[in-house]
Amino acid sequence: MSHVKAGGTAKNVHDSPGQRLGVKLFGGQAVKIGQVIVRQVGMSKRPGIGTKMSRNYTIHAAKDGTVGYEKRKVRLFSGRSVMRTEVTVK
Question: How confident is the model at residue 1 (pLDDT cuts 50, 70, 90)?
Fold first, then answer.
């Protein structure tokens, strides 16, 4: 018997870099138009006055100013209200 036993297949061997998500500019910091404020997956933080959200949920500055974060109540589709963080530029 001069053969080699079949080797198994390798799974989970691919390694990809991180997505660099998170808050890029904190409250009170100066921001210019178009700058990224928050990179996120889903709407954990919501856009407010002076900001806009792109298709991948990234929040950008819509005008020059200073960044601010405020908590506010948001009504869900089920009718329940929950607290969410709103990003604003003033």
Answer: low
Would you list the DSSP string of 30-66? Answer: EE-TT-EEEE-SSSSEEE-TTEEE-TTS-EEESSSEE
For each of the domains in the chain, give its residue range(s) and CATH number, in order of start. 22-89 (2.40.50.100)
How far, in Å, CA of 18 to CA of 21, rounded? 8
Residue 46's nearest CA partner among 22, 70, 15 is 70
Query: Can you say whether the dihedral through the CA atoms of 85, 36, 53, 29 is positive or negative?
Result: positive
Do the beta carbons of residue 38 and residue 59 sit within 8 Å?
yes
SS3 content of the chain, % helix, strand, coil (to 5): 0, 40, 60
Lowest mean pLDDT among 13-22, 45-54, 79-88: 13-22
